[in-house]
């Protein structure tokens, strides 16, 4: 049994539509090209299935003839069109208060992603974790990270400069635009998408804060969270597996402890949703293996150990069982496809 397809909040969808409309591409043109009835999403609480959201991005890029559209829409920041979660962030007392609420409420924006916020030495790190690597959408994560930068600069008392930005995907042909946009080191082919910045920024106050608006927005966000979004146990387990894959800690005891339940309770809840822990673990390993084999030159031994296998032979047997081909043949085929695409 597959878990419910993630969905995207209305504000992200309408950001694409509004930007294209200002560029001379109407909502009806976008609807016809994408096959999505966008006028049905005008309600503030409306949501769009992730697969349709990805299709919308593809249509937007084709219609605009701009492969860097995600970066461009991220830079196009209009404070008057900020969504509900953005309002909570804007009207929090400090940047740290806003980030904590942003992490907690991000599922209202995009429930294919969970956020992790932590301190690492003199830096603060905001990490974007995909609950399934197959949900990764390059233009969306481009827009998200650029928008985060421009919003933080708008909210705080002084301009914020990030220390580093990390993306999971390979550098695109327009990667120079990343560096000019973020004005900091940008890294590709990373394990996670992350924003890294000086932790001293966390104490900055919001210059636009209105505590009454903030309180009202937070109440509405909490009510909406209870009303429309209850993540299944499958989604929660998937998220934890993908966050911790490669750490050597992914077993049922570890996941059960993170969810504050016994291993037996975890097994029972998963069984009630028609899936087993081992099935979810293997799906995650297979997804991550495909990425590492096709998008990196990591050795088979390193991949095997990163995914929790005892040796490369065990990994090779499992991969052939999943895909019907050996890891080596899969990598060779991926490299051949890449060469063909680059020669076109």
What proportion strand? 5-15%
Which CATH C-level class of the largest domain is it? Alpha Beta
Largest sheet: 5 strands, mixed
Structural class from helices and strands? alpha+beta
Record the strand order, biggest sheet. Answer: 3-4-7-5-6
Domain HTH araC/xylS-type: 235-333
Keywords: DNA-binding, Transcription, Transcription regulation
Protein name: AraC family transcriptional regulator
GO molecular function: DNA-binding transcription factor activity; transcription cis-regulatory region binding
Secondary structure: elements and pairs:
Blueprint (H helix, E strand, L loop, with lengths): L6 E3 H13 L4 H8 L12 E3 H15 L4 H7 L8 H7 L4 H11 L7 E8 L2 E8 L7 H18 L8 E3 L9 H7 L3 E2 L5 E6 L12 H18 L4 H12 L7 H7 L4 H10 L4 H19 L4 H7 L5 H12 L3 H17 L1
Parallel strand pairs: 5-6
Antiparallel strand pairs: 1-2, 3-4, 4-7, 5-7
Helix pairs in contact: 1-3, 2-3, 4-7, 5-6, 5-9, 10-13, 11-12, 13-16, 14-15
Keywords: DNA-binding, Transcription, Transcription regulation
GO molecular function: DNA-binding transcription factor activity; transcription cis-regulatory region binding
Protein name: AraC family transcriptional regulator
Structure in words:
The chain is globular and about 55 Å long. The protein contains 16 helices and 7 strands. It has 344 residues and is of the alpha+beta class. The relative contact order is 0.10. The C terminus is likely disordered. The protein starts with 6 loop residues before the first strand and ends with a helix. Helices cover 55% and strands 10% of the residues. The strands form 2 sheets. It has a 5-stranded mixed β-sheet. The chain folds into 2 domains: 220 residues, H-NOX domain; 111 residues, Arc Repressor Mutant, subunit A, CATH 1.10.10.
